[in-house]
Amino acid sequence: MATALLAVAACSDSEKSVDIGGADSSEAMTWVATWGASPQVLPILLSGPDVMPAQFTDQTIRMIARISKGGPRIRVRLDNTFGTAPLSVGAAHVALHADAADIVDGTDQTLRFDGSTDVTVAVGESILSDPIDLDVPDLSELVVSLYLPEMTTATSGHSLGVQTTYVSTPGDFSSAATFPVASTSTSRYFLSGIEVETTADTRAIVTLGDSITDGFASTVDANNRWPDQLAEKLFQEIGRRDLTIVNEGISGNRVLNDIIGPNALSRLDRDVLTPPGATFVTLLEGINDIGFPELGQEEVSADDIIQGYREIIARAHTACLTIYGATLTPFEGAGYYTAAGETKRQTVNDFIRNSGEFDGVIDFDAAVRDPANPTTLLPAYDSGDHLHPSDAGYEAMAQSIDLGLFDEPVQCVTAQAA
Fold it and tell me: How many domains would you assign to the chain?
């Protein structure tokens, strides 16, 4: 493991620290990512020919996102990465969440984009809102409302929100305190990030992973994904306000090949290496590379997965990020389990634990396995499908993480060489 020293990474002019007024005008402030939802193609066609993308016409979408660290100003990223037509947003608002689809009175703010209250996001592009003044507490839920005046097909978004998204009756209800609900979903549409203006010493932890990081099988609307529970541990138990957590898990994701993607290697730059403030990365991915070949997808070896890890490690280090490998959790009893797949998992976990190529190790396998049968999840931690943890399992994962890993980033060789 490398010696812990401060890493220095290049940043754009818009992301550099600035001195602003406030309680202490001498304190430098900067923009840091505080929430994320990795863009992907929608819908996710898991079965049947009749699954179609959601469509909206003259309707408002209201989405709830619980941030990690708060601050006095925020900005919101809208995304049309996988869109097939320009995304026309007639109005966009953000507010603090009250209950269900309703917002806290007096907190609604209009989102503007280069000063305009409406915006068109080109195919394959994303756009960041202008900063807005909104005092957002740590671990608070924000409501982002998008009014879509034209017929809009939701081909770009995030499939597994584990959070209720509300769709209105016809009309612009983007600023409404009480929201008229016509339908609901648990996917997110066109929303990929929230950033907060905060002290310049704040660092973001980006959690790269698959459904176990995305929170599959956790309770909807409860924020029980392991990254959420890690945020609670950091903020509530030890008061670490110098960190944010950005969840970049995609359910079904693989390191090497697409099935539900884009795969980790292809999305690394956008989702992990470039969010403002990104300093630490956790990697929990590979179980789908092992299991999905049993369902007719590309066969990969343990060595293939390890080589994928090595590329991710190298690219993270080039970007001056510290990267921690998380061991793959047990999956005996899951639909795609095989004895050969278990052998691959053990080989991959041995690399994570013992190769020394990651900057540190988070041993999720040890945290949730059944000591009496270590190829399976502990029953109390099993959601029932023998692959995804329960809420208690996700909590055990978060509690197992050594928070000292996030005290200082490791030495950045690239920065030193420069």
Answer: 2
